Each structure stands twice: as structure tokens, then as C-alpha cells.
Amino acid sequence: MARKTGGNIKDLLFERTTGAFALVVLFLAVLLFAVLLRESIPALRKFGAGFLVTGTWDPVLERFGALPFLYGTVVSSFLALMIAVPLSVGAAIFINEFAPPWLKTPVSMLAELLAAIPSVIYGLWGIFVLVPILRDGFMKPLTKYLGWIPLFKGPVYGPSMLAAGVLLSIMIIPFILSVSREVLATVPQRQKEAVLSLGGTRWEMIRIVIGQHCLPGIFGATILGLGRALGETMAVTMVIGNRPEIFASLFQQGYSMAAVIANEFAEAGGLQLSSLILIGLLLMLVTFVVNFAAKGILSKMVARASRGI
Amino acid sequence: MGTGTGTIAFRRKAVDRVMKGLFCLCAFLVVLPLFLILFDLVIKGAKEFRWTLLVDLPRPVGEPGGGIANGILGTVVITLLTMTWSVPVAVLSGIFLAEFGRGKLASAVRFAVDTLSGVPSIIMGIFAYILIVLPMRRFSAWAGAAALSMIFIPVVVRTTEDMLRTVPTTVREAALALGIARWKATLRITVRTAWPGILTGILLAMARIIGETAPLLFTTLGNQFWQSRLDQPTAAVPLQVFTYAISPYEDWHDKAWAGALVLITMVLLINITARVLTREKR
Question: Which of A35, B35, B47, B126 has the most CB within a 10 Å radius?
């Protein structure tokens, strides 16, 4: 602790005081993990690894398995990425490379505002606006003509895996978009100019330079979006249908890990409560791994860019 | 040969045009939902909006009138409760990381902050439920504030550290060269210089917790009446929007839209204020 002002007791006290508050933050993180682990032990003991592959969720018989929720979380998030990633990357390219200067700020600001809308409002809009549009304009015609494909099998209710995926995609677009823009901005100007000066069109410049340079970063942005989508609760709960079964069809109802916690937690006790907390612990661990993977990829990108490669 | 290269050049230009159009379409599709959502909120929310919404208690299904006044009060109370202790903890931790943050403790804290900011908000509800609701044997404003703190703190620690790092070292050195004690220089000069940015971070985090619903579901639970005590179940606007939205009643659906309009107005006002503050700084 011997710094320039090491002799000053007040300075030391200041450092120690702020340090103590920082310690509180560290303590909260450790406590969060410890508390979730402790409370999920009864369910962990009873069901073990079978918890992950069992599809029953029966509070009466006290038999719990998380498979339908895992499935719903993974499928709805994957669907969201399939929609959000191309749109966000396309929009990022437009804003960074094509948009006239007066349009750049408004477009990116509007996209940022999407991130500020509370999740419950997405859910409300999802129930009353998005679901009817998807049901009548997309799902019904598709089951009618392509219903023989398992993915598009009816009957169509409205609340469904598809509705959750589409709504989630809107919610994660701002995050993928802003990271994609940062990644695109790391491309050295010289390289872009080199392609253009050889007579390449803008699209060729994007395909060649950005394609080679930015793919890992865009992958990182995708993983970051995945981290957001996995834990989203209210909006998904409101449109996914909340049915703990596994259907091949995207038009059928599903359930997600966060949604089952939201719906059942307040009334649960005993083994059911412990099982729900175990689901929460799993969700936390998965988002932890996903977020750190994304950050790893992205910080590597930034480091490479700062070396000018 | 001449015509050949001409065709190729034409095709390359056409592809370029098409791709540009596609990227433009992407940008349009990305901002379109914002307009759709805000449009629906304003149209459907304003249709059902009465001033009584802001001052009356909720009424049972079928009874006309009624409001979300207790929810507005609850949201304000829970938000202030969260901030009273989260702001000092977060800002002081941020100061520690920015000014003294080189040791093992600092990297551990940074890791914790990174981890916490990625945890889904519903997990914070579980946390507060186990630590506060179970021992107290009741849902309460306290528990809700505890859950929201876990969301608020990591965001503000991070922005505080970032903002303090934007203050040039020369400013710190100038203060120290004048013989001002380090703690005083940090608080009076470094922190003050970065304050608009820190305040923006606090406001953005506040806007975020005002709209949070999931962590309140089983901590504050919600309430149909006025609540005067912090250890009682407490109403909140997002909870009311949720309850009304998933109910099977038409007039409650209308109330959900009106409530959502109130909620988005609060969130966007704070959000835009925060952004204006940052812009003035530049």
C-alpha cells in the first residue's frame, strides 16, 4: 500500500473504505451462487443428472425433470438468433458503410431505444399484436399448405415457440447490432480503401475485407445475443404458451426455464421449489459460460484490431 | 471481349445495388418494431387512459374506472429503496476499481461485476426470495428492492469505473501537485469531473429497474390496496401490466395498455434525460 501518499492515514482510510464496498459486491456474487447451490441440493440429490433428460413435471407425484424447459429455452433462443443475426449484421453494415451521415445517429439511437423497452411491454404487445399477426398471416397459411412438414404442423393456437422466437429476436437485435457495429469499426480504413482503389464495388469490399476480418467478432456478437435470449423471462412467458411438453412443430406451445420459474415459483414449496431453483442455477451457469465465451471472442478481436492486423 | 467485361461490370454493379438495398431493408426492419410498439402503446393506451388511472386504486373486473395509483407509488418506493443503498455501494466500488484497482481484489471484483451483469434478472428474484422472503415469511418491498439492487449495482459499478477512467491522468496529477490529499483530490476533482457520466449511468440503470418485472413476481408479489409498510406485499406498475395482460377479461386488457403507456412514459423520460445529460457533456 506504499504509494506516493502512503504515509497519509486519511488516504489509506479512503482506499480501504472504497475497497470495503467493492468487497460487498464480490460478496454478493459469491452469496448468489452459494445460496442457489444450497437450495437446489435436495432436487439435485433426488434426481441427479436425470433431471436434465426427464420430461415429466408433476407437482402431485413430486417428480420433476427439466427437459421440456431446456428444449423450449434452446429452441426459442436459436430461432431468435436465426432472425436477429442477419438483420442486425445487415443493419450494422448499412449504418457503418452506406448510410448518409444524417441518418446514422437516428437509426442507431432508435435501435438503442428498443433495448430500453421493458420486457413486460414486449410481452403485452406480443400477446395482442404480434401473436394474432403471426397466427393469421403466417402460421395458418403455412400449416394449410406445408402442414405435412413436422416443423409447421398444426393445430395453430397462436402462443407458440415461433411467437417466442420472433419476439425474442426483436429484443436482442439492439445488443447484436451495437456489438456488430463496434466489430465493423475495427476494420482498418486502409484495407477498405485498398479494395475500392482496385476497382471493387462497395459490396465486394464488404464481402472481402469485412468477411475475412469480422466473422469471429460477429460470432461473438451472436453468442452475446444468445446470452440475452436464454434468460429473458416476461416476454417469453407471455407468448410461448407455457405447456411443459416437447413438440417438433414450431407452431405448438412450449415452455422455457425462465418462464416456469416465473409461473410456479410463488406457489411452490418443498421439492418443487428446490427443482425450480435448480433450473435457475442451471440457467445462471449456462448464461455465465455463454457470456464469458462471447467476451473472450470479442476481446481477442479488439486486441487484434489494436495491433493493426 | 469488350462486351464480356461490360456485362461483368454491369452484373457487379447490379449485385452491389441489390446488396445495398438488402442492407437498407435490414436497417428498416430493425427500427420498424420500435415504431409499431410505440404506435400501439399510444393508440391503445391513450384510448383507455383516464386521469383517474393515476390516482385511483384498482377495482374488480367489470367495475368501471379504477387505476394503478398504488402501483405507481409502489414502483417509486421500491425504486428509491433500491437506490438509497445501491448508489453508494456501486459508486464507491467503481471509485475503488478506477483509482486503486490493480490488485487481486480488484480483478476478483471486476469478475464478479461481469458475472452479475450477465445473470438473468429472474435469478435475482430467486436470490431475494431465499434470503429475505423465506426468513421474513412474507413478500415485501424490501425483498423486491434487494432483487433490483442485484441488477442495479453491477451496471453502475461498471459505468462509474469507465467514466472515471475517461478523466485524464493529468487532471489527477495537477490536483496532487497542488498538494491536495489524494482522497480529497479523487472526490472533489476526479469524481466531480466524471460526475455527469456517472449520473447518466445511474439514471439509465434506474430506468431499467423501473421496468423490471420478473424479479418482483415472487418478492414484492403485488397488492390490490395502498400499502404503508415496507414489509408488506407491494404493488408495482410492471406487475399490474403483467396481471392485467394475462387475465381473460377485456376491460383488464385495456387497463394493461393504459398501464403500459404510463410505464413506458416513465422509462423513456428517464432514459432520454440521461442521454441529453451525456450529450451536453461532450
Answer: B126
